[in-house]
Amino acid sequence: MLDNYTVETAPLFKMLGFETFRFIIVRYNHYSLVSKIQSDLQQLFPQRPTKKLDAQKIDYQSLTKTYYALEKGFLFLENFEILLKKKLDSQNRETPEIALENKRKTDILAGLNLRRDTLAKYPIALMVFVSSSADELYARTIMEQMPDMWSFRSMILDLHTNMDGEPKPITDPLPRTEDNTTIISQDLSELHHLLDLLNNAPESEQAYRLTLYPQIVKTAMDTGRYEKAYEILETWEHQIHENDTLKVWLHKADILKTYGNLHDALELLEKARKLSITRADTYNEGIFCQRIGDVHIL
Predict the structure, then answer these.
(1) pTM for the complete prediction?
(2) Out of 1-5, 66-70, 147-151, 291-295, which region has the weakest mean confidence (pLDDT)?
(3) What's the rounded Cα separation, in Å, for the pair 162 and 1?
(4) What is the pLDDT, as a whole number, of residue 134?
(5) What does the CA dihedral 296, 298, 50, 83 come to, rounded to 10 degrees?
């Protein structure tokens, strides 16, 4: 499995350049990614305070007390998946002790959901971390148990790092402006280089060309060349492997939204959502539901 940290976090860091309420769900396959993203945010935005809480050790009152006392910045809530699943004993029963634990979980989820509008008055990024070992239905669970928070969400990230042996260290510094707002972009020479490789690749070498398309799209989008990115996506879609269809549609919808073409963006996102349902792909279904909600908010 390849690392995707830089690709996934680039739009997040750019979005967080503006201080406002955010609800961000981060799924990860290794805890080093949790530490990495927390460290990078503290480095990129040193003027913003941070707090870290463990969902296994708090109740709703202590969570909100910490949130309101923070006033602005970042609140990291780790082990969030603990809150999403009802606990039962080995005989599938809810003992009095377990009932108290389940109530603690429910109080946190329901409390955050009910207080969404109050929470949103604070320029705080509430970032919850979900281990990839959690149930694949976690996104649907959040939608069902926290519908108001879900409708106000900002982003879902799915981070993974190489698990063949030790995770690869990620140490490259991230650029920032004088006011600490990040600028995540690739040098234009890299885009030109990738386009040259594509232009010189024979049509018969389809497998090779399919490896270039996602690289070009990412680099074009990072440098603001959305028209070129969309052009490549159109070409990629006509030669696409079935497994990449949803990825291409997601990128195309994001570009359409960027240009204000909300009708076409919604149409494509709905098409992608229905395909996800057909494939019983609940994770991507949640992603597209998120994007659809984002477009409607606009």
Answers:
(1) 0.56
(2) 1-5
(3) 5
(4) 64
(5) -10
- For residues 40 and 26, what is the distance between their CA atoms, to the nearest angstrom? 14
Please spell the DSSP secondary structure of the chain, one letter per residue.
----HHHHHHHHHHHTTS-S-EEEEEEESSHHHHHHHHHHHHHH-TTS-EEEEETTT--HHHHHHHHHHH-SEEEEEE-GGGGGS----TTS---HHHHHHHHHHHHHHHHHHHTHHHHTTS-EEEEEEEETTS-TTHHHHHHHH-HHHHHT--EEEEE----SSSPPP--PPPPB-TTS-B-----HHHHHHHHHHHHHS-TT-HHHHHHHHHHHHHHHHHTT-HHHHHHHHHHHHHT--GGGHHHHHHHHHHHHHHTT-HHHHHHHHHHHHHHHHHTT-HHHHHHHHHHHHHHHH-
Which of 233, 238, 280, 276 lies closest to 254, judged by CA?
Answer: 233
At 153, the pLDDT band (50, 70, 90 cuts) reads low
Residue 132: pLDDT band with limits 50, 70, 90: confident
